What we know:
Rossmann fold, nine-stranded mixed beta sheet, elongated
Amino acid sequence: MHQGIMKAWLESSHLSGSNSTYVEEMYEAYQEDPSSVSEDWQVVFDNLPAVNGTSQDIPETAHSKVRDYFRSLALEGRAKGASRVTDPELDAKQVKVLQLINAHRFRGHQNANLDPLGLWQRESVSELDPAFHGLDAEDMQREFNTGSFAYGSDTLKLADIVKALKSTYCGSIGAEYMHITDTDEKRWIQQRLEPSLGKANYDISTKKRILEGLNAAEGMEKYLGAKFPGAKRFSLEGGDALVPMMREILYRAGEAGTKEIVVGMAHRGRLNVLVNVLGKRPAELFDEFAGKHDEVQGSGDVKYHQGFSSDFETPGGNVHLALAFNPSHLEIVNPVVIGSVRARQDRRGCKDGLQVMPITIHGDSAITGQGIVQETFNMSQARGFKVGGSIRIVINNQVGFTTSNHEDVRSTEYCTDIAKMVQAPIFHVNADDPEAVAFISQLAVDYRNEFKRDVVIDLVCYRRHGHNEADEPSATQPLMYAKIKKHPTPRKIYADRLIEESSISADDVTGLVNTYRDSLDAGDCVVKEWRPMTLHTVDWTPYLNREWDESYQASMELERLNNLAQKIVDIPESHKLQSRVAKIYKDRVSMADGEKPVDWGFAETLAYASILEDKKRVRITGQDSGRGTFFHRHAVLHNQNDGTTYLPLRNVADEQGEIDITDSVLSEASVLAFEYGYATAEPGGLTIWEAQFGDFVNCAQVVIDQFLSSGEQKWGRLCGLTMLLPHGYEGQGPEHSSARLERFLQLCANHNMQVCVPSTPAQVYHMLRRQVVRPMRRPLVVMSPKSLLRHPLAVSTLDELANGSFQSVIGELDALDASKVERVVFCSGKVYFELLDKRRKQEITNIAILRVEQLYPFPQEEMQAALADYQHVKDFVWCQEEPQNQGAWYCSQHHFWAAIPAGAQLTYAGREASAAPACGYPALHARQQEELINSALKLS
Ligand code: AMP
């Protein structure tokens, strides 16, 4: 509603003059939050005439409706609004009271008691002072209507209202939720906070459970500190409440029917969570501290990166817990966790997210500093990525390594402000009040389950030691650490409170401390709810200890393939295709009928169809994956009449695997991390991430370095993710030519992943099928084509698809006389077709061309077979489009040398070394391209 219109309406109505100010104020309050005015007033404001211009546009009938409404209220004398109209002075005060309530809902958190150390310098918020609203001491004793404030009765003395507001909004909980636009959500939160004044009111057994959590958290750190002095453990101390908090979340989730929870967290407090929440045996952890380890393959990882899985018993049933392995790069684990959750939800057919819940634990500097957090918030409601909300916990110890000055770490009031971009409610809570922590944790779980959206708990605490235990924090935070030294531990504060209120005796408290220490001495699991795993739904054993060159069933009956080919071109007549798409599908019909050779898009689609027919899942995300960046895929067909979509791949068999092809949010890092998480939790199907252009993968480098290439080596976690990265030098400039092949090759060792450059439709078909049919689960990195998608020579037959298999090396195809060959050129990708074309045109018969379609693991055996006829040749050339310092030349050269006959020479034909991946001038590109082809073919 436009302010000017409101003014005009007021001036023309019987409410003009003195009444108008207070109505205007009330209207302002209504605009900020409709629930802040009484329901009668809401009806009035809701029914005000619609705005479509200036005040003159308001029809007179609307005025009279409003006027009549007021009159009827006044006459009946029954409603609050009516009394205000008839007693404007009192009503003006009433409006002020409602505004005071509203102010607490909006800004109470700014004066809440959140910092356990009491160091936060917070300006007092004038709107929270009754005097600011013109409410004086006399008013304190007057009764006012409480409007929608959900505490006590409809009317209360102002003094009681103020007390209730302070308790609810300015105590140990700072609730930020008025930025949410959905009234139901706000009301729901009010109904949870206000009736109990933000207090938990737990029975003794829950209080004891909370104390046990704090006792375990502190006991564990003290024990480690005494047993392994100076060893890095990234102590939780100061944030001890995380342990009872996690446990309360698990209990609550279990009661709500959650079956699996995936947790992501960085170092801080991780060992504590591992032992005191997930139930890792302390003896195992102590062995790790002592440097012992099992004789396992791989590099292993430090103990505070380790993941863990277990089941946890709750009164509502057992819950499977999985703590994700994570690297040092803070926050990047979060999209991995969400991806893992989505895979589990998909497997369970759980659409509302209730059965599997993510918990992500953040640092205060990291959540605000790392862009990946924004990316995951952005994903939280996006179709391909949503999981029904995440519980996001910030261990806000007010310092990031050595940086704590507010001015240095962020530009916002709270570290959690980023969450407002998705209107997530944010609950700041003083970690020294563990009951408030437990209360808000339960509320968070319920909110997530009710509204399927992210919710943030900002656990405001401190860090008792330095960043790690070898650090001296007072070097950089002298005042904070002087305070911390004198500050009692959370366990002590809470134990004293329970003793004081006679909930527990001092002896019991001492008993708890001793019993916990004894159980650590014994080394056995200290979590009484721990249960051996039975709830996880995937058996990984078929995929363990597999190799890339294991034989597998690549071929299938031609009849079956023909049948699939017909299915994927079958589109309902009512689904009107765009003309270019219709042409592509018309061609596909001809391909299915065997009248035209199979092109890339058709072969790729057939690969998916065959996997789906085998009842395996296919998931593809990328920035344009439905259509394909280069207009080749068209897996998702858009009806030109009504915009609806149709996926032929959803109709390949009566019973088939599920397929999701979703255009992703415009991110690389979080989407790739999500898909990594998905693929590490779902080995059965095919999971693909496609970059729009290959160079975009740069933005996801951390995922490639820290998860994809090294996850198996570090953590024994297998991942069969496929990455399609468009790559090829077509004169599109430095940014859209290269998927940085060299970077992947540099990361290759221990057969950690496969790097392929398929050059024909049959090859892409077999490569994709192999990734599922063969039981090895390792990442597949594909330099996928652009111009080759429509190259007249890059075609295959249905028979090659049905009866062939993936060829790691493709030997010379033309009928050359091998004995006359004097030079052999190796290459990968589209340059092959340029070499072939020129050799044919120039009628060169003494140069053979071999394609290396899999650069890693290097296919020595296939290479030897392809070179069998060329053992007399002394002149071998590696030809590439990329500059010399890029592409495969430096990283794969040793394999080429090993493949060529003894005494032969290997030389390079390609672009000169260059700092940029490609040149920006089309003419220069063409010249360079011609030169490298000529050089490979010994043409001047
Ligand atoms: P989770 O459901 O993630 O807790 O996993 C349960 C168990 O499955 C783990 O303890 C592992 O033994 C196994 N597992 C899970 N994910 C993988 C993976 N990506 N690679 C190998 N084994 C896995």
